Amino acid sequence: MAEEKTEDVSVAALMRQRWGSTPAGPLPPRFDEPGWSYEEQVPHPCPDCAGPLHALRRPYESGGRIYRYVALVCPTCPRALTLADLGLKTYDQLGAAPAATGGAVTVPRPHRGKPTHTVPAPRPPRATPPTAAVTPHGGWPDDLPVPDAPERRALLWHKVTDPAWRPSATAVEAADDVRVILPEGPRFSALRTHLTEAAVPFRTARYWIESEHLGTLNDLGGPTELVAHPVRTTGTVSTPVTGPGSHAARDSFAGQWDTLEPLPPDTHDDAGYIPVTDLVPADWARLLPHPRFNPAQADAVPAVLADDTPLVVVAPTGAGKTPIGMVAALKAHASGRKAAWLVPQRSLTDELDRDLARWRDNGLVVVRLTGEFATDAELIRTADIWVATTEKFESICRTGSLRDALAEVGCLIVDEIHLLGDPGRGAVLEALLTRVRRDTAQVRIVGLSATVANADQVAVWLGARLLRTAWRPTRLTWQLPVLPTAEARSWTDRAALRTATTVAITRDVVADGGSVLVFCGSKRRVRSTALALAADRGVPTAGVDADDADTVERLCTKAGVRLHYRDWPFKREAERAFRAREADVLVATSTVAAGVNLPARAVVVADTTIGQDRMEVSMVQQMFGRAGRVGAGEREGWAFLLAEENERAHWQARLAAGYTVRSRLDDRLPDHLLAEAVQGRVTSLSDAEEWWAESFAMHQGHDSHDPVHEAAAFLLTAGLLSPAEPGAAADPGTSAWRPTALGTLTSRFMVDAELASEVGTVLKALPEPTSPDAAEDLLADVLSTRLPTLEQAPFSDRSRRALIEVLRSGALGKRDATRADGEEEPPLIAGDLARAVLLLIAHQPRLFRTHSGYVLGIPVESMTNILEEARRYLGWLGAQGPLGTVPPWVAVVASDLSQRIRWRSLGPTRGAGRLLWICERMATAPLAPHLVPRLWHAALDLGLGSPDWPGTTPPRDCALSPSAYLALLAERATGLTPAPAASGSGHVVFTRGDHLASGWLAAYNSL
User: Fold this and answer.
1) With a threshold of 0.85, does the pTM exceed it?
2) Considering Cα of 916, then 921, then 925, then 931, what sign does the dihedral take?
3) Residues 6+ apart with CB under 8 A from 362
4) Residue 980 has what DSSP assignment?
5) 882 with 827: CB under 8 angstroms?
6) Measured between alpha carbons, how far is 109 from 112 in angstroms, rounded to an integer?
7) pLDDT tens string 947-999
8) H helices present in 863-912, as ranges
């Protein structure tokens, strides 16, 4: 493992290296200086030839800050330009449309097109698009450099799966470079003999099923441009691929060829392993998972222990990065500081929590922090190590009461730090790391990363030493079998083809004594694929409903197939069975990819999308990394990505180029600027610009301050920030700011700032309802059509039918229960199905008092995301009661619904919110899951429907001290004048204290 170094080259030298061209004409002096590196292709044409321009960047220091020069290169002319040559001032303007006139514009919500708020005219589009586009065959991802240099070698490269195939002798004679990849096994012995006799280099691979012919020669040995001829899994030849797509095929072949280099003789399994006590104190050995460090760990641990310099450790998935993080945490603990370990998702906290069980056994206090677990604030303060999801750690950072505990963190271990570029989680992680870098220089950041192309860029941003290793315990061979283009077929046909290919691969590997991990893009696909695998093993599955979890689990278990995703009720049993090899096939979503230790001999990535979104190449690499069973005497792993022929060039290019981390902070900039303001770190536009200057976005070249100016203007307009001086104009550039009470609530509830503005505006414009039913229907309507998680919620066919029936019934209104014969059902609109879920819980809560996992035939797990997202926004609306920022009826109804959703398994009806509120307070947060049901049932047994009971003796299960219980009783509304049902501000409900309501809202005072 060696520290990374950047090659110092000039613009001209880099152009010669990359494109084989030399820029014409005189160049600016700074272009001749060393230190330039390739950045990206930019969406601006060359002014001379209209060809593509590419950006090169060089860092320089000024006034104690790091900035970056820009060179814009046209390989076609060839020419090197400055921004000024194009009449531009900033890098972001490279993607600009024609300049708009000044003034305000209405900005639509991304992906929904609904007007939300008015802000100053927006900045130009980002130069780096968040999602790379690709055109069929010859297309190329927009954020990768286009390989426009011609291939000058006489290539003849083949991947073959037909044992009868033979290369053209004439073409072989004319070629400079001939290579063949073919399967192992006796069926191909004649072909191997032929290739040996013809002196044709070849390499063999187990389970090889990918077929493709590419080169610059035809069968007669005549020269051609570089062209690839992929062969479909059906055996037919696909359309020839030229241009950039053929370069992707070439680079993909080269990577596969290198991977298949013969393994060294198998000497002994522990070569390069050393005892942990050779590197760490002896008393740490009992806290580490293995008695020896593997070669990657042995290289990294000395750097971890040498000093407190930040580190970024880059290693392939499966190389064992967790013990490296453990050593960093133990070093912080030994120096009297806390350690915080961040993981990207809840499933990884499960895994890490198990790994740290021996730490608890040895007296260390380990606290797990995720959305599923409420934790005592005092326990957080006394913990030695926190294990948290990134989102949970960020929410703690936004809680002022824990600021002192955060100051004691000496080491921040960031697992999967490459997820800085993740569309969903990247912005939160970048904002958090930017804050740590700015405010707590004494905190050491140790980032653990899978292999990424620009790890050096991440390390420089963090001021960290970069340690990189290519070592992994097994050799990984990956393939891209070609599925026929599915443009003319339905989604069902496409899924069936993917499933059939998955079944065939799995059958071959399992028949050879191996195990298989299959990744699918949705829960529905997990269940249907598992059933298909069970059927292939002789288990009758015809007519089985894929949404019937109990039946699916029973049949698949019988076949040795298990399922795994976040809400699957049998996922723990699946993990145990797969580890014990009681099952040899596990079908899962991406939750198993990112660090959950469930390796298999082979991995099949059956889908290239997650939901509607194309999968990130980093996720595919993590899935591939699960291939290879360490410790089972196996030295190889096999991975398959099933790609349709019209997307194959994209995946070949992506896998050959590797994953590049790109900033996502701009995607959610108002949220994170507000969070900094709430924490008192940003109080003016100059503060915001300094914060932005420290971000990864700025480090990557987004050097305009326009995004921050626009975000600040929006937050002031939306009432989430206000001028610090009363009466001052809401001008982000001329006054100091402070968060409003609404802004503070919005940040601490982790509510999207733009959605907060939109939802608040819609609710204020609604006429006041006249009954509880109407009020709950209105809230369900607003949330289901305004929150993307609800609006775009996926449902299986069975769930859709059941929810349509719910909407059709007169019990929920909105849909006429009587229709004339032959009259068509009104079409579903976005959010209808999520709305039905909310109305079910509002109007028929007792349906949720079930242990079967189903409500009206709908899997409860399919409703979880909808209900949890709705509960968070309802809680945020209810907490605005004291502020008067929403109509009083909204605060009362939202508070009650939020509590009823959280405790839905108790079947609470309308008006249960106040009683549930006091039960929660008596139970305390960490004990609430256990004690609230007991306190609830005890209250019902006594005939209590509200907190308004006499006496001062705490109930038997109350976890509060006597004095705390008396203080809680003082917060009750008993004996107070009822608050008005409508109009006015300061309407308080039990989210912050406990008052009563009157009029039709009195229905929410008690059961």
Assistant:
1) no
2) negative
3) 286, 287
4) P
5) no
6) 6
7) 888 888 999 999 999 999 999 988 887 654 444 444 444 444 555 566 677 88
8) 864-878, 888-902
